[in-house]
């Protein structure tokens, strides 16, 4: 990725968005993430924050593939234990003021909330959504908690998660008391974090449809002790709760509207979107095979939803919530930059989880290398020079030349094989 930075880890490259990207985001993200000192923390916070915000935008929709959809996202932050996923603990503060507000509205048998416990049963999740106008956020910093629920007969609500991503109708009848419950159009957002092993525990196969509904951000960090005695005088709880009250104000304004706000791309953006994802489809087909098509198609939905979030926050900051919001080029470009990075993380995690063990699996580093090569032919020396820019070892480079992802078209001249077909 041309405008992304990389850490030195040969086989598990972490794409890191540059400071310039973060500085072009709506003020909400720039100011709330200002307490983080490195880009990786800012990336983790951004992905986590947009996921939380995606569950706090009632009366806001866009039309995608002829259907009205909300901005709801499913995200999974993946890293080894103790690698710095703690950023997520502060993200809960963004949603807590709205959660607290809703809890105060509870009455009789109606239990209002925004944050739905992951340690839950299928009937409990349906009940929570039913009591909250079919909206909520499922957040869990240890994915095994959710895996434990889904592994139980009484708690297996994987089908509810799959249906809710597209706001599809869901119904259930309890066997004991014959009570019938239905969700006409659920709007659920999901934020998880865990280790690579916990990803596999939650989603043991890429074929059940749940995998393709998540965006993944995978990272590894050097074993370096954090200065736990830093004299940072910022109260993180107070800092993020302040921004949480801003989101509560947006939530209330949207909730009070009689007419929902409609979001859309411009005609130019629509064309760029279709052209870009046509290339991405070919890329996923070449790298991961036909079974991965659900992933790239849903990443299209994800980009649209991310653009929705950027756009409404920018309008809210300007004191303007019109009936129709047209995406600016800046917010479109930022959503596309983010999705280009996330697709590489998806490829890497898919390769880990997929049961189809094939030689063509690619790390994020190799996906980045393919992207840098472009669509024209190139010499071996030109490719070697690019590989060194991203820290690829000579041995890895030599092995990669012999894979099916590149084809030789002349003496010392190559081109990408799959995307040219």
Structural class: alpha/beta
Strand order of the largest sheet: 6-7-10-5-11
Strand content: 5-15%
Shape: globular
Arithmetic mean pLDDT: 86
Give the helix level as a range of percent.
40-55%
Oligomer: single chain
Total beta strand runs: 16
Q: Using only CA atoms, what is the Rg?
A: 22 Å
Largest sheet report: 5 strands, parallel
**Number of H- or I-type helical stretches:** 15
> pLDDT under 50 segments (min length 5)?
1-12
Measured between the Cα atoms of the first and last residue, the distance is 22 Å
Describe the protein.
The structure is a single chain. The protein is an alpha/beta fold and 421 residues long. It is built from 15 helices and 16 strands. It has helices spanning 19-23, 27-32, 39-54, 87-103, 122-131, 143-150, 158-165, 196-202, 236-255, 267-288, 293-317, 329-353, 364-373, 380-389, 394-401; strands at 5-6, 15-16, 60-64, 67-69, 74-78, 115-116, 135-140, 170-173, 180-183, 187-194, 215-218, 261-264, 324-326, 378-379, 406-410, 413-416. The strands form five sheets. The chain has a five-stranded parallel beta sheet, sandwiched between helices. Strand 15 and strand 16 form a beta hairpin. The longest helix has 25 residues, at 293-317. The radius of gyration is 22 Å and the shape is globular. The two termini are 22 Å apart.
